[in-house]
Amino acid sequence: MTLDPFALLACADPIHTFSLERMLTDPRAFGLVNASNVQRAICRAMDGLPLGELATDPDVIAVFGGERAIASLPVGERPKEFVLLCGIRAGKSLISAACAVRAALTCNVEGLGPGEEPRVSIVSLTMKVARKTFRQHVRGRIMASPELRALLIGDPMADSLTLRHPTGRPVSIQVVAGAKAAGALIADWAAAVIFDEAPRMVGAKDGVVNLDDARASIAGRLLDDAQVVMPGSPWAPFGPIYELTQEHWGKPTRSLVVVRAKAYQMNPNIWTPEACAELKQRKPDAHDVDVECNFKAPDVTLLDAQAIELCATLEGEQPPNPLFTYVAVIDAATRSNAWTLLVMANPGDNGLHIAMARQWQGSSSRPLSPRTILEEIATLVKPYDVHALHSDQWSGDANKDLAVQFGLYLFLHTTPMVDKVTQGDRLKALITDRKLEMARVPLLVRDLGNIRKQVTQTGLAIEFPTTPDGRHCDFAAALLLGMKQPLPEPKPAPAEPTERDYAEQRKRELARKLEKTRRPWDGRIPG
Questions:
Q1: Which of 291, 325, 348 is the last residue before a domain boundary?
Q2: Within a domain: residue 106?
Q3: Among the four 32, 316, 329, 342, which has the fewest Cβ within 10 Å?
Q4: How far is CA 245 from CA 234, 241, 455, 519, in A?
């Protein structure tokens, strides 16, 4: 089948006739016909082509790091490595997929022996993530294009497919899990390697399997015009991509070009001023990273101290409210960490009411007695009609047996970090919106103010720092666990009596009075 006007199978100079920009924008290929100037400029820079009229576009100048960077872009050959750092929903995955197909169809196979099959590898943190990128953006686009589908050799597999190069040699596109990248990448000659979501990959000092080792392992297996592409959104301010960005953005060379693009520079059709403003108001942290393309702060206090103080308005422990359904949570410990108890309820409008906050703290020389503490807790929670406690797994089996002796059932929970992060964000929203009600318990206020939100290479994490007195934000740990439990809305208050109700009540009272005046006949006739 002839691919005119692609003219791919017969073109003498495929990189210029069948450029990445054309692969991305041609409706018979990846079909991004309304690609922005920044997206087109990135494609030209990845191909080593002049930017042409795009070189004067202010957004293009900004994403490459200035006019001096534009003038220094390599022309005539593809940069060996290309970091594509940009906001979300900006087209980076589509550009990377187009790059994979372009590399498979235009790679230089001269010098390869019979039976040697070049490969384009898509590497991600896990096989699941890698397959998603492959399925949606590579296989899906190829199968949707009659021209590209005609170049398939055999049927696509779940994690690979093979295309026919203009020379007739098969070239495969295959996904590789990050956990096996360093070893798997050296098995074949590389037409290209794409490290999907590279900013989340660790460096050599952080783990056995990492981006540094993977890049080093493929250096000797790259074909002459092969390219290593590292796309992704910014993440933690450490790791290989962060370091490459800090050192090389605005300083392009034939070895490495770094692009740093805001989401609205890449995709102004989706990221309109209104959409950006809406996200900034709703989730300012997400806007800073996902739109403005800034790396996350490595370690930040989760909650604002002043906002916490504004929520501490209740006077002491609160008596049971008959309209509330209460839940009790403990964070058990016996030595330097405190054993904490929180009794909480939903006061309405999905808020949070902390009726009681108690703690007990032992030491290495005088540890607490779990039996004594649980017996005391049973007495404390009884007025709130609480018959169960929620706890983490610490000494769970032993504490569960002890709790039964005092009429309590102990529910044990394992809380993954992702749940802690979710509840931490929810707690922040409650405090910001003044929907948390609590007494001014100094240790509770301090614990909430000490919660920290950390950015790690693998995701966000909630940290409970240890304070000088040996505590471990123990009230905060109990609170986040308690927020996972269902807290029903308060029961409706009794309706105000009406005039009819008062009239009926008066009738009943009169009937009772009359009933009292009646005396049974004793059989005698008076007089």
A1: 291
A2: yes
A3: 316
A4: 10, 6, 18, 101
3-state secondary structure at position 301: strand
Count of other CB atoms within 10 angstroms of residue 172? 18
Regarding whether 241 and 360 lie in a shared domain, the answer is no
| pLDDT of the residue at 208 | 43
Structural domain contains residue 464: yes
Torsional sign, CA 176, 179, 181, 183 = negative
pLDDT digits (tens, 9 = 90+) for 201-241: 876 544 444 788 888 888 888 998 899 999 999 988 878 99
Structural domain of 309: 305-483
Within a domain: residue 22? Answer: yes
Domain boundary pick from 236, 264, 291: 291
Please report the pLDDT score of residue 203 as a whole number: 60
The answer to whether residues 110 and 195 belong to one domain is yes
What's the number of domains the chain is made of? Answer: 2
How does pLDDT run across 456-500, given as a tens digit for each residue? 766 788 999 887 778 889 999 999 999 999 999 999 988 777 888
- The 3-state secondary structure of 209-253 reads CCHHHHHHHHHHHEEEEEEEEEEECCCCCCCHHHHHHHHHCCCCC
Cα distance between residue 437 and residue 357, in whole Å: 12
Q: Summarize the chain as % helix, strand, coil (round to 5).
A: 40, 20, 40
Output the six-digit token pair for 273. 């001023």
CB 231 within 8 Å of CB 198: yes
- Asked if residues 329 and 474 have their Cβ atoms less than 8 Å apart, the reply is no
**156 shares its domain with 211:** yes
Position 454 scores a pLDDT of 85
| Backbone φ, ψ for residue 85 (5° rounding) | -105, 120
Q: Provide the pairing of β-strand 160-164 with 170-177.
A: antiparallel
CATH code at 463? 3.30.420.240
Report the distance separating Cα 208 and Cα 151, nearest Å: 38
- DSSP secondary structure code for residue 152 in this structure: B
Please indicate, yes or no, whether residues 213 and 309 belong to a single structural domain of this protein: no
Q: 354 in helix, strand or coil?
A: strand
How many whole angstroms separate alpha carbon 316 and alpha carbon 330? 19
Q: Say if 67 falls within a structural domain.
A: yes
Q: Does the pTM exceed 0.85?
A: no
Residue 236's alpha-carbon distances to 10, 200, 285, in angstroms, are 46, 7, 13
**Tokens at residue 351, please?**
């808020």
